[in-house]
Amino acid sequence: MAERGRRKAGRAVLSGIVAGVCGCAAGCSAGGAVGEEGRAADPVQTLHRAADALVAAGTSKARTSMEMATGGTLVTIRGQGVYDYRRQLGQLKVLLPQDPAGTVEHRPITELLAPGALFMKNRGAGVPDDKWVRVATATLSDGNLVTGGATDPFAAAEVLRGTRTARYVGRTEVAGTAVRHYRGTADLTAAAEGASAGGRDALRAAARGFATARVPFDVYLDDEGRIRKIRHRFSFVNGQRKEAVAVASTTLLYDFGAPVQVRLPAADDIYAGRIAE
User: Fold this and answer.
1) Which of 143, 144, 187, 238 is the most exposed place for a label (fewest CB within 10 A)?
2) pLDDT of 29 above 60
3) How far apart are CA 133 and CA 95, in angstroms?
């Protein structure tokens, strides 16, 4: 597909997923207090290293959710899958919500995440059932932080490389695992500067395309510095109404070391035709 065609495809995917959806306790023991204080001493630097801790972990399973309010109704898109942080490859099954009347069921969209690319199957909108849609993430105005209905887990971590301000909130638990809770704000431009080669262009696109490059977040790290839960609050401009739309994206990571096998589609399996809006 020519570059112009890929950009048209990117805009169509953004419309089909995002605009389409819009239509339809803290504490520690006395013995651990000194260590806890040390870990929390420099939250900004700690969060800058969070993506590297995932690379060291290798792989994990992931659950995602993306929430946005439209017409006074909160809609949620959910996903589940696996991710390989060293290869920056992942696979998610993303489930769109029912139409407001509850009469239309959407088939799960299978998404393959790769450096610089998003592949989707069961995309609909005129794409044959046996074909994949491929979009270069750098052509998307949000860098695929919200387009696919799920934030790429490694991209979610790399946003933290742009942390400008952060504070340590305290100890708590996520799914039975002891974690440290941090709250702060990241800058997407700074995140792109510090990102891996595979994620840099997508984050640059997001910095240009969102209503603001500032991203508030809450993140929960385990004692090995790995992200167990991260929640971003993005703001993008609705292309039709020219007003800012708030999107909350949450990613849960668990079962580190789980086997991950992601096979990218062959060229003949990728749809080269026009994608309907």
Assistant:
1) 238
2) no
3) 17
d(CA 26, CA 241): 43
**Percent over 70 (pLDDT), the chain:** 77
Give me the phi and psi of 267, to 5 degrees please.
Answer: -55, -40
Quote the tokens at residue 27.
């504490």
Please identify which residue in the block is written with the tokens 């001493």: 41
The arithmetic mean of pLDDT across residues 186-211, rounded, is: 94
DSSP-derived secondary structure for the chain: --HHHHHHHHHHHHIIIIIHHHH------GGGHHHHHHHTS-HHHHHHTHHHHHHHH-EEEEEEEEEEEETTEEEEEEEEEEEETTTTEEEEEEEPPPPTTS--PPPPEEEEEETTEEEEES--TT--TT-EEEEEGGGSTTTTSSTTSS--HHHHHHHGGGEEEEEEEEEEEETTEEEEEEEEEEEHHHHHHHS-TTTHHHHHHHHHHSS-SEEEEEEEE-TTS-EEEEEEEEEEE-TTT--EEEEEEEEEEESTT------PPPGGGB--SPPP-
Amino acid 241: pLDDT: 58
- Do 170 and 26 touch, CB atoms closer than 8 A? yes
pLDDT tens by residue, 230-241: 999 998 776 565
- 16-20, 46-50, 253-257: the lowest-pLDDT one: 16-20
